[in-house]
Design a protein that fits this description.
Blueprint: E1 3-8, H1 15-27, E2 30-36, H2 47-60, E3 67-72, H3 76-82, E4 87-91, H4 98-111, E5 116-120, H5 131-139, H6 153-163
Parallel strand pairs: 1-2, 1-4, 2-3, 4-5
This protein binds 4'-phosphopantetheine.
């Protein structure tokens, strides 16, 4: 049984994240969407809100029965070691992600080398999508409906309304 993790901030989950999760779920036995802490980002949504949104999205999809959501506050490699994880799956968009993702992959491997980091290419329409773009558009009252799963659109919009 091969278990992989899709780690990220998911602040909030976007169609781009869902695209990568679906691709991972087709290839591996178990997929853990791991809401982890990126110390260089201050979150809009709480960790609980992010997990709840991801759970809502996964529950809507028929082919994601092998996917579960967890949160973790610590080093990704410690989670990997303790949970029998074979690989980390991340999406790699256009050119912007390359340096940052390689830095993380190589640093993680330096810390612990009994796993692989795999980069998946998202669909064209998700290539330039990011949570920060969604937050930026949403916080100015723009239409984010093409960028996030429909079942969490209201939850996200409500958050922005309450913040403004
Ligand atoms: O969606 P993001 O913000 O690009 O995801 C980054 C994340 C959360 C996967 C990364 O910051 C992470 O792995 N955080 C856990 C702490 C850790 O292991 N940091 C060292 C990474 S080299």
């Amino acid at each position: 049984m091969k278990t992989v993790v899709c780690p990220g901030s998911f602040d909030p989950i976007t169609n781009g994240h869902l695209d990568i999760i679906k691709r991972a779920a087709k290839l591996f036995d178990n997929v853990i969407v791991l809401v982890a802490n990126n110390i260089s980002k201050t979150g809009n949504f709480t960790i609980e809100e992010r997990c709840e949104m991801i759970n809502t999205v996964i529950a809507q999809e028929t082919n994601l029965t092998n996917v579960k959501v967890e949160s973790f506050d610590g080093l990704l490699v410690d989670y990997i070691k303790n949970n029998n994880v074979s690989a980390v799956v991340k999406g790699l968009r256009a050119v912007s992600d390359f340096e940052y993702e390689f830095q993380m992959a190589l640093t993680n491997r330096h810390l612990y080398n009994d796993f692989e980091t795999l980069f998946f290419t998202p669909a064209n329409e998700n290539m330039y999508l990011s949570s920060s773009i969604v937050r930026q558009i949403g916080s100015f009252g723009g239409d984010i409906s093409d960028f996030v799963p429909h079942c969490i659109l209201d939850t996200i919009n409500k958050k922005f309304v309450n913040h403004n």
